């Protein structure tokens, strides 16, 4: 079977009826799903058993239990991606055990801060291209969907810096295709459409086309000419791993699956964080002013260097606090491989553990005034006093995010650069959240952009 056939076959996983992502949807469909979650945790505690027809979930919000599943007994709990596998294929983020180690090790150096120098000019290029786009949008005065704008920026940054390629696809179209997957509430219609033999159009992009669009993206990236002859890009490391006889698991299909994974894990999350920071800056004039004042103090009117960006502590704190309030990955899911006991609860092999990081981030057990936006929570002094595992936007333990530091570099460069030149104004209704695979603003984040007078 060819790589393309394997990929096509995998696409049928979308909308699996038994998927937890799919099963949780009715619970989270109301106008304020996260309020429901917080009430549930308050009423029933940090470990809530949920019995479904033929499987059992444990809905967890206590940090001690996060530690057990993610760190101290991590080998007993494997990843869970049923129903959303077409996004990632069998990549680093989805697999377990030795295979995971064999896949992660050769890619790890691409995310060491020492590699960032190499990426920096390409991040600047992508942000400059976004400035041109914002300038056009400011001129036309049209309403801007911020999550789409930041997704296209994040995808451009990943393509240029990590893959050493210009973005070879239409990012607005691909963005809509990706949303077909992550909006799990649409999966039921897709599944029913499949069963009845006719796929229903449940989003702006036909789901059948969404599958094909997404699966065609890695091939397009691979087919694009490299921008440079840089040796230390993620793409170069993927190619080296593919040619390394000592890593037989790393074949051509692996490269394709890794690319797919990065084009989601490295875009959707950063995009949501950036979009929320624009929202915060438009609601809190003082936050916007402090970001600009810090940039002025560190690099003034000249172009920033990577060292400058690393000095933007207030801006980084804003990004961290945004990730506390709106963690893109609001829950981590694992499957128990063997029986275990957590706080007297008997966990059976096969049980699904849903760790709600959002609930910990918003719990008054761990945070003072959790609903207040306060970037100073991330000052070194206050960080020392924080309860361990109460802040997990990047997960914890050996399976935590490989790209966290890279995303702070992207955000701390993009945010002041764009805010310096533009004034994004949120023009939507009061915020409501949507708990899809990621935590998204219901109906998006509409903005109007104006160019600031210098
Ligand atoms: C604000 C931005 C980001 C957030 C909030 C985020 C969040 C996360 C979380 C929560 C996990 C762990 C999932 C789990 O335990 O089930 C994860 C894993 C991962 N992330 Fe990120 N991420 C971000 C940016 C990035 C970037 C920029 C990249 C790469 C370009 C990336 C690549 C990955 C990969 C490959 C994994 C799997 C690691 C492994 O299993 O070994 N992420 N991310």
Walk me through this protein's architecture.
- By secondary structure, the chain is an alpha+beta fold.
- It has a domain at 1-90 and 330-367: Uridine Diphospho-n-acetylenolpyruvylglucosamine Reductase, domain 2 (2-Layer Sandwich).
- 50% of the residues lie in helices and 11% in strands.
- The protein has 20 helices and twelve strands.
- A five-stranded mixed sheet has the order 1-2-8-5-3.
- Helix 7 packs antiparallel against helix 8 (146-162) and helix 11 crosses helix 13 (252-265).
- It is globular.
- The site of protoporphyrin IX containing FE has 26 residues, from helix 13, helix 14 and helix 20.
Walk me through the topology.
Elements: H1 3-11, H2 20-24, H3 33-44, E1 47-51, E2 56-60, H4 63-72, E3 77-79, H5 85-88, H6 97-104, H7 116-140, E4 144-145, H8 146-162, H9 171-182, H10 187-195, H11 207-223, H12 234-243, H13 252-265, H14 268-283, H15 285-299, H16 306-310, H17 313-325, E5 331-336, E6 340-342, E7 345-347, E8 352-356, H18 357-361, H19 380-384, H20 404-421, E9 422-426, E10 433-435, E11 439-441, E12 446-451
Parallel strand pairs: 2-8
Antiparallel strand pairs: 1-2, 3-5, 4-12, 5-8, 6-7, 9-12, 10-11
Helix pairs in contact: 7-8, 7-20, 8-14, 9-11, 11-13, 14-15, 14-17, 14-20, 15-17, 15-20
Bound molecules: protoporphyrin IX containing FE.
